Structures are given as C-alpha cells and as structure tokens.
Amino acid sequence: MLIKLTVPTVWEDLTPTQYKFACSLIGSGLPTDKVKTYAFLTFAQWNNLHQLLAEQSHLQGQEPLSKTDSALLNSLTEQITEFLPMMNFLTAIPNKPIRWNEGAKYDPYMHSLPFEHYLAIENLLQGYMHTRDPQLILNIRDLLYNTSNTDKHATTSHNTPNTSSDAGDQSDFSGLDSLTADTGAQVVNTLLWVVSVKKHLAARFPHLFRSVPPDPDGNPQPPTPDQLINAMDWQLLTLTDGDITKEPAVLQTDTYRALTYLNKKAQEQQKQQ
C-alpha cells in the first residue's frame, strides 16, 4: 500500500496555523530534534494516519487496518528520524519576510517603518545577539505590533552600516526556557520577522550591508558597542549632511528611503577606497 505524506519543507509553504504552531514549538525551548519531530508529526497529520490506512484498505476491498497495514504503521513510526531532515528549515532564516498578521503595524517587508524605529530594532537585535535576553525581542515586538507597550521602547538607537545585516544562515532562539508558551511564540515570530527582513535588506542594499568575517569557530560576530555607535553616527551625519537640526525629520523618514540614500553613499565611498 502506497502512503503519501505531504509536509511543508520551507517556511513560505506553511499555512498561518502551521506557522503559529511552529513558533509555539520553537518558543517552548524544546531541543531541536524534538521540535522537528513534533513539527513533522503534526504537519504530516500523523494522528490521522491510522484513519487514512483504514480508509485506503476499505477502498481496496480489504479488512480495515489489516495486519499488513499495522506493520506499515509501525514501520513508519520507527522511521520518523529519517524524515526529520525535511524539517531543517525550522532552524534556518526564511528566504522571504514572514510573520503572523494579527496586530502588525507594517507589511511583511516593513515598508513605512520610521527610520528611528529601524535603528531601535537593530540595536535591540544586536543586544539579543550578545545577551540572548528574550525581553529585547519583546521590546522589538512592541515596536512592530499594536501592543500596550508600543511607545515605551520607541527610542533612537544604534545600527551597523557596512556590516552583516543578518544573523548567519541559522536562527538562534536561545534563552526561551523560562518563558510561557505564548510569550515564547511571540519572541520567535518577532525574531523570524526581523531577521528575514534583514536578509531582504542585505540583498537590496549590498553596498551598505557587507558581511563581517566569522570568528575562528565559524560563528558570525556581532558588532561591538563602539562599532554600533560609530555606525549610527555615520548614518545620521550622512542623512543630515551634518546639520543636527535636520535629525528629527530624518528619524521620521521611511526606512527604505533612508537606506537607499545610505547605500548610494556607501557605494561612493567604496569606489574611492
């Protein structure tokens, strides 16, 4: 008997319900193998497999769930680990911006995001990369979603031009063990949204976002605090042309317009080097 199991193998193929489930699984702090196992079992509708076998047996004129079918079910269960590589995408950065829609202030690509909030998000994200403190990601959530704390964290911060705009090829969700399931899911959703947008920005503005060499172990290196400060200073000085009175207007500028100008300036500087 041929059993066909269909499961998504990339983030973009998940339904909204599947995506939320994946965020909840990852946000629970479970080990990666267990996350992949539970995701596969759910996406493949493993709980319904017994019923599927029975229905196919009936259509083929066999007794419901014959001994052969039972053996097949047991065999499939034993082979679950062979299917887990199909779930490797759960530890990778999505190829396109992804997030759940409810309460989001911006479209998936964060068009119309004020440059001030972009700077704050970048600083909070880099802080998370250094400390793995999930509260920093929740602060980003408050900037991107309609929550009661939205305005509390809307402060100017630092960014990293001419450095890597992503967190490597893999997502790191450390520090989630102490969170409730709902909060952990929100952290994962927010982090996935931000890093997938950063991946998009890196491709769109290649002169502004340049890769940083990895450390000796091959891990991505987050910018140092001094690099963050220098980067923000360069961006604001470039956008204001050194006129500090223009800074309030610059901070309210659409992020894509600001990055387009900065990418052009970065390109000009690289040609002069």
Can you tell me about this structure?
The protein is 52% helix and 0% strand. It has helices spanning 16-27, 32-43, 49-59, 67-78, 80-83, 115-131, 134-144, 181-204, 225-240, 247-251, 255-272. The chain is elongated, with a radius of gyration of 23 Å. The chain starts with 15 loop residues before the first helix and ends with a helix.
Largest sheet geometry = none
Count of separate DSSP helical elements: 11
Q: Helix proportion of residues, in percent?
A: 40-55%
| Main structural class | mainly alpha
Distance between the termini: 66 Å
Radius of gyration: 23 Å
Summarize the structure.
The protein has 273 residues and is mostly helical. It has eleven helices and no strands. The protein starts with 15 loop residues before the first helix and ends with a helix.
Topology:
Layout: H1 16-27, H2 32-43, H3 49-59, H4 67-78, H5 80-83, H6 115-131, H7 134-144, H8 181-204, H9 225-240, H10 247-251, H11 255-272
Task: Label this structure with key terms.
single chain; 273 residues; mainly alpha; 52% helix; elongated
